[in-house]
Design a protein that fits this description.
Low-confidence stretches: none
Strand content: 25-35%
Radius of gyration: 13 Å
Structural class: alpha+beta
Shape: globular
Order of helices and strands: HEEHE
Mean pLDDT: 90
Number of helices: 2
Helix content: 25-40%
């Protein structure tokens, strides 16, 4: 299974179950870029989730990847 499909089909529903959202952005070599939204955008332990996702990808696909994550806050949190 491709990493993008694994994130979209397996990881995403689990994250959504906790009120969060993860979106696959790109893959360049062993670096996978994702965007976290919803509850994830303000989570204080997101680094644990990132480590868990990396370990799940390794376990399920056999690929060792590094997640490059960005948080996207809802538009109404922006000051301006």
């Amino acid at each position: 299974m491709e990493v993008s499909n694994y994130i979209n089909e397996i990881i995403r529903p689990k994250i959504q179950g906790d009120g969060g959202e993860i979106t696959f952005v790109s893959e360049e070599g062993d670096t996978v870029s994702v965007c976290f939204q919803g509850e994830c955008s303000k989570c204080r332990i997101l680094d644990r989730c990132i480590a868990w996702i990396e370990s799940e990808i390794l376990r399920e696909t056999g690929r060792k990847v590094t997640l490059s994550a960005q948080r996207k806050k809802p538009f109404f949190w922006d000051k301006g």
